[in-house]
Design goal:
The protein contains 18 helices and 14 strands. By secondary structure, the chain is α/β, with parallel strands linked by helices. The protein has two domains: about 160 residues, Aspartate Aminotransferase, domain 1, CATH 3.90.1150.10; about 240 residues, Aspartate Aminotransferase, domain 2 (3-Layer(aba) Sandwich), CATH 3.40.640. A seven-stranded mixed sheet has the order 2-8-7-6-5-3-4, sandwiched between helices. A three-stranded antiparallel sheet has the order 10-14-13, covered by helices on one side. The protein is globular. The chain starts with 9 loop residues before the first helix and ends with a helix. The model has no long low-confidence stretch (mean pLDDT about 90). Keywords: Aminotransferase, Pyridoxal phosphate, Transferase.
Length: about 500
């Protein structure tokens, strides 16, 4: 029996679709209707000054002669490949095969490149397929091997490793599992700190407990200060639950000593604080030595097992930093140390809700922790590329430190690692008054003028936290060349002269 065809006249169809019920339209969602924790969250790295930088960039595009500079220098964020750092060849060649497996049939790449790509394809099946929510098992085993080698044989269990979409998602996962959403949940964060932490705590309705680093002592940690803060927080009804440590430091560039790490772990053990060890800059060491929190915890447990057996640690790493610089690929991992199995199951449940981390990011984690070895075809090239990037970081850091050290009204600590300097700018009452008249904080005013006159975009220290009455800026030293540093020095001298006290 043929299907019945229903037809309508054109006028009837239009009439059906043009008639609506009679009602008063409801208003749109406004700020007062939404999650106020989102409204309250601040993230200075992409805040007022970077937004102004994008506005000026668009202006330069439409009218190249409209500003007193030719381009915007993005020194506000550790984004290496935006600033002309080349990607590591081994990474990209393996990734290209993962995206297009037919390249395995060609002679374009060295055998070790194709072998690694094949192993990853065997493990993942395809970068277009979901993986296990905790991450590809092959990659997690590679991470465990890397950790054991880094920490001189301290055992790493692949089942305790979670691959993540960048280290930021690992931070969010720890906070999601451990914080209850109540205001009495306290989290100790270093000041200055990476703004992700204060923003994430605002979203979780938790109370940040800032502990100030000692600037005059290379941004070192004051354990007595932390002890006092824990006691004080408890007296106000706040329960400290987590202690955040960033090592090497962002924005300070400082590297913690083994003894400092031991003291921090002692405080955590005594007060039941879960440690978040943000160790994403562990490859960026110019002065001193990197000690992982896990390795130092293992030392303490060997010496005093009964005192440190309950310490819980979440250690984070990322493909965005180091010499990898693959920020946009979003690869990272988190190792959970000392957590009970039922708590680890909560982390797995949380990971399952998002299905899986980005699979190409997982592949990059494997390449980061398992680079070509001596004897591999790609080894010498890979080593040369890594050395060039690391040496470039070190020389740029030294050049910027020396330039700042020669300027009046700037105090700066020598960077030991990471990608940043956090110089203190001495600003007088004239600057403070002018800034206030513009509705700005003094360090914001300085950064805005620097941007508008030179095109250099940096972040005010107030976005990271600083001792009251002091003013800083965070700058990365990643932009190519040193000419921009000279332009900054010229601006600084002119700024200080213009706003000199009468």
């Amino acid at each position: 029996m043929p299907a019945r065809v229903i037809t309508h006249t054109k006028s009837k169809t239009l009439k059906q679709f043009t008639q609506v019920r009679d009602f008063t339209p409801a208003p749109k969602v406004t700020l007062k209707d939404v999650n106020q924790h989102v409204v309250a969250a601040q993230y200075a790295v992409r805040g007022l000054i970077p937004m102004k930088a994008e506005e000026l960039r668009e202006k330069l595009t439409s009218d190249p002669d409209s500003l007193p500079f030719e381009s915007i220098i993005n020194a506000n964020i550790g984004n290496p490949q935006q600033l002309q750092q080349p990607p590591l060849s081994f990474y990209r060649e393996v990734l290209s095969i993962l995206q297009n497996p037919k390249l395995l049939e060609t002679d374009l790449y060295a055998n070790d490149v194709k072998e690694r790509a094949q192993k990853l394809l065997n493990a993942a099946q395809s970068v277009g397929a979901y993986s296990h929510s905790q991450g590809i098992a092959y990659v997690r085993h590679s991470v465990a091997h890397f950790i054991q080698k880094r920490d001189n044989g301290v055992f790493a269990d692949p089942s305790n490793i979670f691959l993540t979409t960048g280290a930021s998602d690992a931070v969010k996962a720890v906070l999601e599992v451990l914080l209850t959403g109540e205001k009495d949940n306290g989290v100790l964060i270093p000041i200055p700190q990476y703004p992700l932490y204060t923003a994430a705590l605002a979203l979780k309705n938790a109370t940040p407990i800032p502990y100030y680093l000692k600037e005059e002592q290379q941004w070192s940690t004051d354990i007595e200060h932390i002890d006092e803060l824990v006691k004080s927080a408890k007296s106000f009804g706040i329960t400290p639950k987590i202690l955040v440590v960033i090592n090497p430091g962002n924005p300070t560039g400082a590297v913690l000593t083994r003894e400092a790490i031991r003291e921090i772990i002692e405080v955590a053990a005594q007060n039941g604080l879960v440690i978040i060890a943000d160790e994403v800059y562990q490859e960026n060491i110019f002065d001193g030595e990197f000690f992982s929190f896990k390795s130092v915890l293992a030392e303490l447990q060997n010496e005093h097992a009964e005192k440190f057996e309950n310490v819980q640690l979440a250690s984070l790493h990322s493909t965005s930093k180091g010499v990898s610089g693959e920020c946009g690929q979003r690869g990272g991992y988190m190792e959970l140390v000392g957590f009970n199995s039922e708590i680890k199951q909560l982390f797995l449940k949380l990971a399952s809700i998002s299905l899986c981390p980005v699979v190409t990011g997982q592949a990059l984690v494997e390449l980061m922790v398992n680079p070509p070895k001596e004897g591999d075809e790609s080894y010498e090239r890979d080593q040369a590329e890594r050395k060039a990037i690391h040496d470039s970081y070190k020389s740029k850091a030294e050049a910027m430190y020396e330039a700042f050290s020669e300027l009046e009204n700037i105090e700066v600590q020598k960077p030991q690692g990471a990608m940043y300097l956090f110089p203190r700018i001495i600003l007088n009452d004239v600057v403070k008054e002018v800034a206030e008249s513009h509705g700005l904080k003094p360090d914001e005013f300085y950064c805005l003028r620097l941007l508008e006159e030179t095109g250099i975009c940096v972040v005010p220290g107030s976005g990271f936290g600083q001792v009251e009455g002091t003013f800083h800026v965070r700058t990365t030293f990643l932009p190519p060349g040193e000419e921009w540093i000279k332009h900054w020095a010229t601006f600084h001298k002119e700024f200080m002269h213009k706003y000199a006290e009468i």
